[in-house]
Design brief:
Elements (H helix, E strand, L loop, with lengths): L5 H11 L6 E2 L6 E2 L3 E3 L9 H13 L4 E3 L8 H13 L6 E6 L10 H15 L4 E6 L8 H13 L3 E7 L3 H14 L6 E5 L11 H8 L3 E5 L14 H6 L3 H4 L5 H17 L3 H10 L8 E2 L7 H5 L8 H11 L1
Parallel strand pairs: 3-4, 3-10, 4-5, 5-6, 6-7, 7-8, 8-9
Antiparallel strand pairs: 1-2
Helix pairs in contact: 3-4, 4-5, 5-6, 6-7, 10-11, 10-13
Length: 325
């Protein structure tokens, strides 16, 4: 008898695990499978066949939320996702999120930029409405009133379903909510933020408190710490072999390896991969709706999509909290 590979084990677990309930995005009507697929690499390091295979596998494993941006690969990410949806005829089964504010063609969050960026994204995605629009930057050069009125106009026109922020501080989220209340316009329902087991301080604390106060759904970005929490990078040699190794290098230190070893222990006890454990930990955190994860091959999705079906015990959560504090 041959020993099962980790990916085979994850695939088997997926086939026998109970159905995962969708999670609501803040106070909005959107409900999604609690794992989001990032389109960061589509049109950049992932060509069209790879992109199609990844998207097909994501949906096959139950995924519904696809996250991209008008600045990813100069808009090619949106084009590839749009072409794939058109070829599969599955638009109505998906929740499409994109971000505006960083593209070279329509930078910033002025009313004209937002309107033009959204219209361009709709054309590339070949859809009539963006389900969840994120402000990709916090643009202090534009009054929140102008940005909020522009987004509200798009929501009223049916071009956007709901919207959220990205990289906004707790103070800015509160400022936006107050402004939205005074204007009588739609308010943010979601937030994307850098958040994972080895990068906790930026979100936890004041920002987490404000997210709870405002009933904002959180979609953690860099959920696997640029691949570090998959166990892919354990030495300098590992970093040098991979194109994205430089991004993970910040975690290859005593603390990072201590956290990774704890993840390894939990993964071994549960018979899953480290990535599954790291994402399951995120899903246990308050307000987290769906971690946003990027992959370069369809097979990598098995461990990722197993996370919502792999709840961690109190003992495991306590150990991971302690070692990563």
């Amino acid at each position: 008898m041959t020993e099962s590979s980790p990916s085979a084990t994850a695939a088997t677990a997926l086939s026998t695990a109970p159905v995962v309930l969708p999670r609501r995005v803040g106070p909005s009507a959107l409900q999604v499978f609690p794992m989001a697929l990032s389109g960061t690499v589509f049109g950049w390091t992932a060509d069209a066949p790879t992109t199609t295979a990844v998207l097909d596998r994501f949906v096959e494993l139950g995924g519904t939320l696809i996250d991209t941006a008008d600045s990813y690969a100069g808009g090619r990410s949106e084009i590839m996702i749009g072409n794939w949806m058109r070829s599969r005829g599955n638009r109505d089964a998906l929740t499409i999120a994109t971000k505006v504010g960083k593209s070279a063609d329509h930078p910033g969050l002025s009313a004209p930029s937002i309107r033009a960026a959204v219209e361009a994204s709709l054309r590339r995605l070949r859809i009539e409405r963006i389900d969840l629009l994120f402000l990709h930057v916090d643009d202090p050069t534009v009054p929140f009133d102008e940005t909020l009125l522009a987004v509200d106009e798009l929501i009223r026109a049916g071009l956007v379903g709901a919207f959220g922020g990205s990289d906004h501080t707790g103070e800015r989220l509160l400022e936006a909510r107050i402004a939205a209340g005074q204007l009588g316009v739609a308010h943010m329902v979601a937030l994307q933020k850098h958040y994972n087991l080895v990068h906790r301080d930026e979100y936890e604390g004041d920002l987490a408190r404000v997210a709870a106060q405002l009933d904002v759904g959180v979609l953690p970005r860099f959920a696997l710490a640029a691949g570090f929490l998959t166990g892919k990078y354990r030495s300098r040699a590992d970093l040098e072999r991979e194109r994205r190794g430089a991004e993970a290098s910040r975690y290859l230190n005593r603390r990072g390896l201590r956290i990774l070893h704890a993840v390894d222990r939990v993964a071994e006890e549960l018979g899953v991969e480290p990535a599954t454990v790291a994402l399951s930990w995120l899903l246990s955190r308050p307000r987290v709706v769906a971690p946003v994860v990027s992959v370069s091959a369809p097979a990598q999705l098995d461990a990722i999509m197993a996370a919502p079906r792999t709840p961690l015990s109190r003992h495991h959560l306590t150990e991971l909290d302690r070692v990563s504090a």
